[in-house]
Amino acid sequence: MEESRASSLPVGAAGAAGAAAAPRAAGGEARPETPRERRRRRTREDLVAATLQVIGEFGDADLTIDRVSAASGISRGTIYAHFPDGRDELLSGAYAELARDLIARTSSAAALATDWRDSIVAHAEAMLELAGDARIGHFFNVSGPALIVDGAARGIGSGASALMIRDELAAASAAGLIDPGLDAASTARLLVGAIRESAIAVVRDGADPAASLAAFGRLVAGLERREPPRAIRMPPEALRDAATAP
Q1: CATH number at 30-221
Q2: What is the pLDDT of residue 46?
């Protein structure tokens, strides 16, 4: 099962924080980084980490280039050299890094799950844990999606979760554990929507994460296939007695 989950991740979903794609040789094969490429990648990673630090301390609305510069120890000019669009590009990189980290944590928890239900619930548990961080949770679930309307960063986490949950449902269906007529892809999208809305409710409305997780667990358990109750066969004399009873 672990192999199918890993193969479901979108290309680049598990990449380094805010880094560019791995360098490729002319034939398309990955090649070792040059010292310059390594320095560039590490600088971008440091800037994304500093952006998340500032968001955690002040919130994304109060993110400034000066604060990122102070947190990272990197000059404004170097920041713009790596992130030409400035604040918006830093926010996009921070959002993508949160999504990649969420995928990694969810994948690890799902791989340790004892059955398909726990594997799916692991997605909600990781998201609700992230939502418990007031500023970071608000950025990832409320303000971030509104700021990042397109680009590679948008939909990384939800897309990966939908694919992994789809695979779990398909495997459970093939094993006869859930209704074989269930549409795994459509159900996975609905479950991801429920996870996202639950996280938003925690961040924005103060909903109880534990109650939300328990409710999601019951929702997933409701997909389990249950045999219809068997009809009780009564002997003929019992049927006659029941029919003539006053």
Answers
A1: 1.10.357.10
A2: 97
